[in-house]
């Protein structure tokens, strides 16, 4: 009993330790209090942090009697269907034309990543909650902390700030985002603060077994065969000490799988030793989507992604470019 008591004391100490100026949370709470209808938006190609943070806020705000909708330009991967309220995330652009008291962007470094036009959001308050170092601080209220493990961690801190009692559903959403962005509490985004938040969410009933099963064990047999194809294409650039590979849109059709089956490939390749960075490209005839990863402290892949209009974190980032591509004998060429 003494050991458990000390464990709780340590967690409470860590959770109450302030890593950032949280005075912005007061302004955020005031904005939520006065708004009647709110739209929450996250980035294209949503991951666990995007889905977890958008749903945690949606559940909370609806509980406060607000009219709330959630928009992501791309439908979330099917393996996030276990998240409470997942069916509430819509990709209908008509939502963007409705008059909202407040727009909230979560886990979204800029408007381009969200796949929306900036001009749409110049007529009302915009809240920007994010942990990406490449965030352009485009909001009227900006809650940005690049030391946070995830946007879900920031939303957790907001709930703590306002003394909101997190229930099992919200805990599951928040822990999903935190575990996604930390790779299961093992990558460079993991901190003792993230560990403490995770422990508290577990004590509040987060379904960690379901989270792990859905996020980390979600590949089909044909999906892994496609991974094998990508591994067979793996090349090494000696000049830049870079490993890279690609998957074509036609590969997805040939193996009859969804694009979400590729998720996690870049993280898997990041286990390569003696390379500075890895790059995975998803290629269609007029578009390339790139995912950068590194484990090196002296490399910032978010800067590489930013060259192509993307962004992300120092050790994990991505970009999309609209280029015409052709393949010849396994070599990609921009036309």
How is the topology of this model organized?
Elements: H1 2-16, H2 23-34, E1 37-41, H3 48-63, E2 67-71, E3 89-90, H4 94-97, E4 102-106, H5 111-114, E5 126-130, E6 141-144, H6 151-161, H7 168-181, H8 192-203, H9 208-216, H10 221-232, E7 235-237, E8 242-248, H11 249-255, H12 265-269, E9 277-284, E10 287-293, H13 301-307, E11 311-312, E12 316-321, E13 325-328, E14 331-334
Parallel strand pairs: 1-2, 1-4, 2-3, 4-5, 5-6, 8-9
Antiparallel strand pairs: 7-8, 9-10, 10-12, 11-12, 13-14
| CATH fold-type name of the largest domain | inorganic pyrophosphatase (n-terminal core)
Our measurement of the CA-to-CA distance between the termini, rounded to an integer number of angstroms, reads: 68 Å
Name the CATH superfamily assignment of the largest domain. inorganic pyrophosphatase (n-terminal core)
Number of domains: 2
Round the mean pLDDT to the nearest integer and report it.
Answer: 89
Q: In percent, how much strand structure appears in the residues?
A: 15-25%
**Category by helix and strand content:** alpha/beta
Instruction: Give, in order, the helices and strands.
Output: HHEHEEHEHEEHHHHHEEHHEEHEEEE
CATH-defined architecture of the largest domain = Alpha-Beta Complex
**pLDDT below 50 for ≥5 consecutive residues: which ranges?**
1-5
Rg (C-alpha, Å): 20 Å
CATH C-level of the largest domain: Alpha Beta
Number of strands: 14
Mass-distribution shape: globular
* Tally of contiguous helical segments: 13
Major sheet: 6 strands, parallel
Helical content band: 25-40%
Strand order of the largest sheet: 3-2-1-4-5-6
